[in-house]
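Why DUF4268 domain-containing protein? Reviewers of the renewal asked for a concrete example.
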Amino acid sequence: MAQKLKICERSKSTSFDIHIIKTNEELEIERCVMMNKYFLNKKFKPFEASEGYWLSRCESYFDKIDVILDYHRCEIQINYSKEELKVLFEKWKSTYEEFEFIGFKYYWNNIGQPIYLYRDTKFDWESLNDEQEFRKIEQGFAKIINKYRKITGK
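Here is what the prediction returned.
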């Protein structure tokens, strides 16, 4: 005699998500989809930085500037020739302050590296929801780009 399965009324009335094991690539694709909702005019795409290690990149975030989102930092790559980068770097370093932007610290050690933007651990990042967090990250990019524009006159 076959038994009939009965679904609990509570289970029918509430929805739930089941998170299955996903590859790093799948997780990064999801992250890009979420970021593209917040960064409306920008397009982040996943890429494999090294074997099995996926990150998100936005090419031409600003004229000649690419942005890469790592898990603990953002990389801002200025796509200039070495000569142009040397001039920009010297001007930048003369006004450099590690914590010059609220909520962030950043480093630009030499022209062979991107600008690394980190979250300032003294800022209350934990109180931000996803949207606020992405808006704050966007604000960090804007601060770097504004400084770049001021220095270059672009």
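The chain has a mean pLDDT of 88. This is the kind of structural detail the renewal will allow us to pursue systematically.
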